[in-house]
Amino acid sequence: MATAKKGRNASAQSKPGRSLALILIAIVALTGGMFASGHTTPRLGIDLAGGTSITLEAKNEPGQPNAINQTNMNTAVSIMERRVNGLGVSEAEVQTQGDRNIIVNIPKGTNSKQARDQVGTTAKLYFRPVVATELAGGDAAPTPSATGGSDKDEATDKATEKATDKATDKATDGSSPSASSTTQGRALSDALRADETPSASASGAAEDKASPSPSATGGTSGDADGKLQAQYAALDCTKESVRATAGDGAKPGDSTVACGQNSQGQWQKYILGPAAVDGTDVDEAKAVLNTQSGAGWTVTMDFTDKGAKKFADITGQLAQKQSPQNQFAIVLDGEVVSDPYVSQALTGGNAEISGNFNQQSADELANMLSYGALPLTFKVASVTTVTAALGGEQLHAGLIAGAIGLALVVLYLLVYYRGLSFIAVASLMVSAALTYVIMALLGPTIGFALNLPAVCGAIVAIGITADSFIVYFERVRDEIREGRTLRPAVERAWPRARRTILVSDFVSFLAAAVLFIVTVGKVQGFAFTLGLTTVLDVVVVFLFTKPLLTLMARRKFFASGHKWSGLDPKALGAKPPLRRTRRPVHSAAGPVETKEA
Cα(first)–Cα(last) distance of the chain, in Å? Predict the structure, then answer.
């Protein structure tokens, strides 16, 4: 047994080149991936690269004068963070300022416009039935479809028919514009009356006994009916100022007008019925590539128990109607973000929206559905561009400080460890190369952005990595002080040093993990970098430092204990090598012979 164990140890000691080859292959592969991706430098955070800062001011909703409180503000911050992170924007800072403002900082280099659009979209999300719709140019447009979880193979592109009857025959005997308007008004009135059923808002009434009926809210009869028709006729969704105010003041139980953009980028205007499903009723939404039915990118929705009943009620009603009144509009901040049609009641508590989606548009819609319902209404108070001048100066100063610190560490290693400092410096260089390449790859992969605290974390990691080398070197020197030669000292010192290094790095990694979980914003960058470099420290020590020291122990310069090697037994105060001695064997009559000990 002892012979077999010795053989295994000898085999492991004789092949340190395998570990060195492994880490070299890893460095080459990661570097190749970095150049292949085209991202050869780490992404920079807003404090280093600049970006956009958005200030949002909370507004009390009608009938809720005390809605602005710390709980609702914190909930809004959490939802906004998830919205931005759902777009892959990393290092975005979302935090409260005062008692009614939220500051959102979005780094340059991310899709900041897309993030601004979604962060600024702060109203609640509603599902409203479509009463009438047409393009700004008067043409029909394709709409996505909504299907249940078991009916995903239905056709997904269906042209939206016009809800109005434009009796503007230019070849007639001089029909006046007022006659055409009268005809259009009757068509809209008929459409509104067709939509005016008690169940149009039944799902909402089931949860809120005090919610007004459609006729009571003034959106579907009498003077209010005519007012809504007039708003619809005057609505020009091609103008941004008009789109921003469309439907202002409308309550969830009111019919309203709205604008939306279809998949062709054309603006479309709508008359929408009372809200049937609230955004808080959506439990989860995902963008999914449906390869089985060939539908391409789709958006799947799962509803809460209450939401499933509401959604089943409204889709059952819409499925019995003709286009466009078999559509429901997903409305966020008064704008229609999607208007799928329904061919049957969706009673399974889930649905799939399919149509002319690509990955980006599917992700955007899923993100809105998942994180669309905010407890407060917000107004964009200001949008400013942040320059990186100050951050660049701080980075320059930080890098100088890091370089000075690294130079002092190397100088100390040279003075104290002499030849061993070559192994330490080489290990530091390998660790630095791995850290840089991985940070560059994490930018496009998970959206990691390097900020000033992250740079501080990388500088702190220099000390953690150097500490691991020192622990191992001191264990080896202790073995030499005990009188052992270098090669056995290297192997005997490794198990003890390994345990110490692992325990130390585990504590550092645990601290970084806790800091990452309990903090937000820039501090997370520090924690992430500290955790990453701690893991890399273990990799470098196991796959580079130890194998390299094993190889160097075979070289005469180190093995002979040269005075510049850092392993000179005389300089270390080593004991004489253990030798065999002879001791007397005692008997009752006194010592009679000696035995070799």
Answer: 24
Q: Could you tell me the domains of the chain? A: 15-43+388-572 (1.20.1640.10), 51-122+374-386 (3.30.70.3400), 125-360 (no CATH)
Residue 396 and residue 335 in contact, taking contact as beta carbons nearer than 8 Å:
no
Per the CB < 8 A criterion, the answer to whether 330 and 337 are in contact is yes
97's tokens: 């300022």
Query: 3-class DSSP state for residue 242?
Result: helix
- As given in the structure block, the two tokens for residue 177 are 């514009």
pLDDT in tens, 553-563: 888 888 887 88
How far are the Cα atoms of 54, 367, 483 from residue 103, in angstroms, in the given order?
A: 6, 20, 65
Residue partners of 518: CB distance under 8 A and separation at least 6 = none
Mean pLDDT of the chain: 74
Structural tokens at position 387: 């320059």
156 exposure class (CB count in 10 Å sphere: 0-12, 13-18, 19+): buried
Report residue 315: phi and psi, to 5°: -70, -30
Which tokens sit at 230?
């007039």
Instruction: Give yes or no for a contact between 548 and 20, defined as CB atoms under 8 angstroms apart.
Output: yes
Q: Is the whole model's pTM more than 0.85, yes or no? A: no
Query: Using omega within 30 degrees of 0 as the cis cutoff, is the peptide bond preceding 444 cis?
Result: no
Structure tokens at 416: 């104290």
Both tokens of 348, joined, read 């399974």
> What is the pLDDT confidence band of residue 534, given thresholds at 50, 70 and 90?
very high
Rounded to whole angstroms, the Cα distance separating 242 from 586 reads 113
Q: What pLDDT is stored for residue 361 in this prediction?
A: 78
Instruction: Look at residue 180 and tell me whether its pLDDT is greater than 60.
Output: no
Contacts of 66-73 spanning 24+ positions with Cβ under 8 A: 67/375, 67/376, 68/99, 68/100, 68/376, 70/99, 72/375, 72/376, 73/99, 73/100, 73/102, 73/376
